[in-house]
Design brief:
The protein is α/β, with parallel strands linked by helices and about 500 residues long. The chain folds into 2 domains: about 240 residues, ATPase, nucleotide binding domain (Nucleotidyltransferase, domain 5); about 220 residues, Nucleotidyltransferase, domain 5 (2-Layer Sandwich). About 40% of the residues lie in helices and about 20% in strands. The strands form 5 sheets. It has a 7-stranded mixed beta sheet, sandwiched between helices. A 6-stranded mixed beta sheet has the order 3-2-1-6-12-11. α13 packs across α15 and α15 crosses α19. The chain starts with a strand and ends in a 6-residue tail after the last helix.
Length: about 500
């Protein structure tokens, strides 16, 4: 096989990267070309993403690839987190900074919307987990607040689609990212008109939905000149970062669950069709679009956001490295206290350690007294939440689950991987850590004919990257603690 090069732009809530993927001799190798910070911008009490700065970083990544590394990629693709949107005016200009999903304007939006369409009916219409920051509730908040941005907006693009638009000039909404919005009919590339009618919103502002692997168009001439790139295509990859990550799981068959572990922990299974019922609605699982017509049946768990925010709070006095934090937790007393990672007070508290202490006091537990105890509380609680989620999946799906694949940055955290194995009593296969970038790259490769199927993608990932296997220990103790943990689950 001839050497093929593809450039992935992978943006998370705390950082972004340009990753070069090279396919040679049926194996994939990665090279980080550019890394940059990303964080919400707070202005007058509201939280935004600086999309213009982010686009500048993506252009820098392409420029470095071509000029510094001497490699012209065959294509580029963008993936980001879900739900957030950019508004465009009639001239195709982005109207202001896009709101970030942790912005407090949606704190009451979901409950207010349920007065228009009851939550049970809404879930059966969409199959999407009810979370206050879903795009539906964001657009409701725009309308409720009589946003002046809406007065001049003509088009809506999800974040990765907006960045692809800035590269190509083509406005499309990719299926996996659009499916996070709570606007699509389950498993279909079709918007649900009744939802737009409920909030008196023009459905024509939404763009046509395209499948992962669609070539949008070529990079605009001015960007070619600025970066030194040739006229290469922009591919609508699986633009939701979790969808890209799941595409790269090095697994066969279907008897496995996944945890895409990072700022969020997305835990679920891959299904051939949406799984929707009143029971599943009460469990609050989501059915999001995947690659090759698959459905990601999963639950959003708050994830390592809790640890990231603790580290940020402590950074004024302590400059802990991630390995140091893991070692601190090992020295702390086990199971001193527990939290539900998905409790509302952890969404964006400002002071995460204080929020954790307050949760413990509210639930009749001792407060964690040291930083190590806080960290251990987070790790143990996350692992126990994985167990609760696994139990819920097994209750509604006939597919046996005999192992868990942990992918993404959290796969580097061997302690959390071991805890996950202990709590679930299943072997955990950790890796690859760059799962999202790999999935992004491989969907570009599929669009340009370098691979032909999801099965071939996963085989290449298996052949190209190592995984580490964790087996359960001390299962009886974890079973006992799990019974206690169930008392603290808030949803």
């Amino acid at each position: 096989m001839a050497t093929r090069n593809f450039l992935a732009f992978d943006l998370g809530a705390s950082s972004g990267r340009a990753i070069l993927g090279t396919i040679s001799d049926s194996k994939l190798s990665l090279k980080e070309i550019h890394r940059f910070e990303n964080q919400m911008v707070e202005i007058n009490g509201s939280f935004y993403w600086n999309i213009f700065s982010l686009f500048g970083e993506l252009k820098t990544g392409l420029k470095k690839c071509v000029r510094d590394f001497g490699i012209q990629p065959e294509s580029v693709g963008v993936d980001t987190w879900g739900v957030d949107i950019a508004l465009l005016d009639r001239n195709g200009m982005i109207v202001g900074l896009p709101y970030a999903y942790r912005d407090p304007r949606t704190d009451t939006a979901m409950e207010e919307f349920f007065k228009l369409i009851p939550k049970e009916e809404l879930y059966l219409m969409t199959g999407i987990q009810l979370m206050q920051f879903n795009t539906l509730f964001q657009l409701y908040a725009y309308k409720r607040d009589c946003s002046p941005q809406l007065e001049i907006a003509k088009d809506i693009l999800f974040m990765p689609d907006a960045l692809s638009y800035l590269f190509s000039g083509v406005k499309k909404n990719e299926f996996s990212i659009a499916s996070t919005s709570q606007f699509l009919k389950p498993g279909k590339l079709e918007y649900e008109q009744r939802l737009f009618d409920a909030i008196d919103f023009d459905i024509n502002m939404m763009q046509d939905v395209v499948l992962p692997g669609t070539i949008l168009g070529n990079i605009k001439l001015e960007i070619q000149k600025e970066t030194g790139s040739t006229s290469i295509p922009v591919v609508a990859v699986a633009a939701h970062d979790t969808a890209s990550a799941i595409a790269s799981v090095p697994a066969t068959g279907r008897n496995w669950a996944y945890i895409s572990s990072g700022t969020w922990s997305l835990m679920g299974i891959e299904s051939d069709q949406p799984l929707i019922s009143e029971v599943i609605q009460k469990l609050n699982f989501t059915n999001e679009g995947g690659v090759e017509g698959t459905i990601r049946f999963l639950k959003n768990i708050m994830g390592l956001w809790l640890l990231q925010e603790c580290r940020r709070t402590w950074s004024a006095d302590y400059n802990y490295s991630w390995p140091e934090m893991v070692e601190m937790s090992k020295k702390a007393k086990p199971f001193k206290c527990m939290i539900d990672p998905d409790a509302h007070e952890f969404l964006n508290p400002g002071d995460m350690p204080a929020a954790i202490a307050a949760f413990c006091l509210k639930t009749g537990q001792p407060e964690p007294e040291t930083h190590g105890e806080v960290i251990r509380t987070i790790f143990e609680s996350l692992a126990l939440k994985y167990r609760a989620t696994l139990d819920a999946i097994r209750a509604v799906s006939a597919t046996p689950i005999d192992k868990i694949h942990i992918i993404g940055g959290g796969a580097n955290n061997e302690l959390l991987c071991q805890y996950a194995s202990n709590a679930t009593n299943l072997p955990v296969y950790a890796g690859p850590t760059e799962a999202t970038a790999i999935g992004n790259i491989m969907m570009q490769a599929k669009a340009l004919g370098a691979v032909s199927s999801l099965v071939e993608i996963r085989q290449m990932v298996f052949d190209s990257f190592d995984t580490k296997i964790f087996t359960p220990v001390d299962g009886d103790r974890w079973d006992v603690e799990y019974q206690k943990f169930k008392n603290f689950i808030t949803e």
